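Put briefly, the fold is written as integer tokens. The lines below illustrate.
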Amino acid sequence: MSKTAVHAAITCEGLVDEATADGVRLKLIAKDERGDVKLTGAAMIALEFISAG
């Protein structure tokens, strides 16, 4: 983690870490325009929220 400059443009990326019958786990990263990582994390999306029906 590093300090963030005022007015810095922060972008977020997500990669599928695991996909199961129950849902999808994502690895997330936020970084500035220089590529300095500002924040990392993970998210789990339950299949019930992404299935049509």
Remarks:
- The two ends are 41 Å apart (CA to CA).
- Helices lie at 47-50.
- Residues 11-50 form one domain.
- The mean pLDDT is 88.
